[in-house]
Every structure is written in structure tokens, then in C-alpha cells.
Amino acid sequence: MTVIIAGERSGVGKTTVTLGILSYLKKHYSNIQSFKVGPDYIDPMFHQYVTGKPCYNLDPILTSESYIKTCYNKNIQTSEYGLIEGVMGLFDGIPDRENVPIASTAQMALILNLPVILVLDCSRLSGSIAAIAMGFKNFNPHLKLAGLVLNKVGSDRHLELLKASLKPLSIPIIGTIKRQENIVIPDRHLGLIPTNELPQLDLFIQELAELAENWFDWEQLLPLLKNTVSFNLNNEIERENLAPTVLVKNTYQPIRIAIAKDAAFNFYYADNLEILQQLGAELIEWSPLNDHQLPKEIKGLYFGGGFPEVFAQELSQNQLMLKAVKTAILSGIPTYAECGGLMYLCENIIDFDNNSWSMVGILPTNAVMGKRLKLGYYQAKVLKNTPLLLEGEIVTGHEFHRSELIENSPQPLYKMQRFFPSETNTPILEGWGNLPNIHGSYLHLNWGNRIDIPTRFLNSCIQYNTP
């Protein structure tokens, strides 16, 4: 079995609870697998930092229910313990019938038939905590509420009042966390600060592991975390989702793909990178911040998202790298640039202080940082062929950014609408493909159940002749 850590709402402390459990498990056991519900990049970085293993995103909108089952079962089967961190509040998602919002933590629990541990913020509550817990317990009777974690408890007396109120509900109290003002993970405009920017992270994780010794009732919690899955890799779901739908036209040598990976670019789904490798790619990591030339004999470029706006000055000062990237793209190398990667290919990034920093300049537009967060799922119709997609195809992706482009492309890639339709759901033209070898967009894609996308990318890369 594996348990899902859910919150009563966003910001209740479930990431701290999750990292506390993972830190304890890593200290006492070696083989732990974690997952994250929804389209998140930064929380999975923290999971991987603790466990030493990739954290996989589970998202029924970006992939499918069948792929979620495959991904979960495939990756949990060799692990001793497992844990899934939820998204926002337990029932937060796109409204749907039967009290199971789409893409919510609740839906994930039902898809995988797993129990839920609910994290409650007790900082301003005593007797009312029982009403909240009862509401979550009864809102959807098909969910298995395995226990509660009481967070931000003020004192022993406060805890006594909480326990007395909850006792009639017969819901196990799995954990109790007193107010810990020093247990804070720093954040900024898109969420937590990534792991590679936190020099004291090792000490923080060590402190979490020690605190978690006393936070949780491990006799109750460990059996919920213990993996009992036995999975046949040859079953129908595995074949349906992981077998290539389009064969890569290369069986003799790896296809070298340069992956931009440093503090400025680090938003990658584990699924995307692993599928590329399964299809025959050799992933070569390089740093737009620190390197001065591209890796040798590469056939493709993959720029993920990240924080190029935070490191715009350093990126701009690395003129050798900017010129090398521009030269490679002009030579025809297939290039996939997603969100932060899209910004890097622009002429300039204008940061929050209105400073302008020169970038690669392959896209004749500028990326400007703004105050408004652009967030949500989108369904997009492809308007032109790219190294990854064909005109007329439909893809579903996710946007999460505070920048916008001053000039839109005269040849946009997508005609997009929000995934959840409404009367004001006006179509948006988005993406840049001003050169036939470029796919640049703010839209994040998970290729889990669309293996045709990375397959097409690699086939495009094979056709590229290295200068």
C-alpha cells in the first residue's frame, strides 16, 4: 500500500509533512518512491533530493487515468515504501459530478484506490476541528480517510482540546506538529525556491528527519507507507502506454540530445526524459549559465522551463553560449523550448526591475516579467508542423508563468482554450515556430501517454546533419 498526503487547502503544510516523512524514511530505510499529484516541478525536486530517485507526476488531464495506473505501478513495484503528495486541498480541482473534482487529490485516491492522510491547520481552531474533519470524511464516502496530521498545534493544552473534539469521529491521529517557525522552505514568485539554490538544504533535511521522529505515530504510519504492489510489466496497460506508437528510425547508435540543466533551467517531467531514453536518446546535460559551448555531436536541443528571469544577467553575460545556441538553431538543429526555454530564445528578457538582458535572439520578440500569474490547463489545436507535432493535432498542456511576450508570433503554433470551458473562454493564439526546426511555447507538455510526440522529435533529430 501507499498513502496520499492531502491538505484541507493549499498552504496547510503538506509539503513539509511529506518531506518530513520522506526524510525519516530515507534515514532508516533505503528504497523509497514518491509521486506528486498535478503539474508541479519544484516539489518533485525536493522529493528527489531526499530519496535519490525521480519523483513522478500523476495528472489525469496531462496524461490519462490508465497512464497514471501504469506510471504508479511500474515505479512503486521495486520500492519498499511509497508516498504521494497531493495538490492544493483534497477536493480542489475542476468541478465534476459525484464530489470528485477532476485532477484533484481525491480523484487520484480513487483512481489508485489508496487511502488518504489529511493535514489540518489547527492554528486558529479547537472544537471546530471536528466539524472540518467530519466534513472531509463524509463529503465522499468512497474515499478512505486513514488518518489526520494536526499541524501548527500551539501547546499541550491546545492538543488536548483538539483530541477531545476529534475523539467521537474515530479517525486515527497519525501525527502532531507543533508550531515550528524555523521550519520554513523559502519561496518566490512561482513557488518554492528550487533545491540547487539552497546551500543549507542538507542541514534542513537532516533536521526534518530528526523532528519527524516525534511528529508521527510510526506504528500507525509505516504500515500505510509499506508497498504491497506486485505488478506485471507485460500487462495490457503497460503495452498500451509505453510501447512506441511510431518507431524511431534508428537502431544502431544513441541520438544525442542536449538538455539545458542548471539553476536557470530545471523544469522537466521525469517521464519525458525517461521516455526519450527508452526511445534511443542519449541525454547530455549542459549549462546555459556556465558552459561556453554546446556538447559535441548533438542532434537536438531541449530547453525546459525554470527561472531564466532570476538569472537573466548571468545568462546575458555568457555571450559565447548565446552565440553557440543561435548558430546551432540557424543550422537547423531540432529545438524544443518550453516556457523558460522560450524566454531564453527571445531577443531580450525584461526582469521585474525593468532591466533588459539580451538572450539568444532567435525569436524576434521580448519576454517581459509581470505581476499577474498565468496559470491553468489548456487544450490546444496545432496550427503548423513542428519537430514534435503535426498540424491539426490536439494536445493538452499546462501554463504557469508571470512573463509574457511583447510581440506574438505571425505564425503561432497553437489555438488554445482553457481545458474547463466557460462563456468567456476566448481562444488564444500562442507559441513560436518562425523556423521549421523550432517548437517554442509557454505550454508545458507531459508525454506520458503521447509517446508519438518524443518519437517524432527524435526522428526529426536523426534527419539533422551535424555541421
Query: On the 0-100 scale, what is the average pLDDT?
Result: 91
Q: Cα distance, first to last residue?
A: 52 Å
Shape by Cα distribution: elongated
Quaternary structure classification: single chain
Q: Into which percent range does the helicity of residues fall?
A: 25-40%
Strand content: 25-35%
H/I helix tally? 14
Number of E-type strands: 22
Q: Sheet with the most strands?
A: 7 strands, parallel
Strand order of the largest sheet: 3-2-4-1-5-6-7
Nearest-angstrom radius of gyration? Answer: 23 Å
Structural class from helices and strands? alpha/beta
Uncertain residue segments? 233-245
Give a brief description.
The chain has helices at 14-28, 42-51, 65-76, 105-112, 128-139, 156-166, 201-215, 218-225, 236-242, 270-278, 312-317, 319-330, 340-344, 452-463, and strands at residues 3-7, 32-37, 56-58, 81-89, 116-121, 145-153, 173-178, 187-188, 191-192, 255-260, 265-267, 281-286, 300-303, 305-306, 335-338, 346-350, 356-358, 363-382, 394-405, 414-418, 428-430, 438-441. With 467 residues, it is of the alpha/beta class.
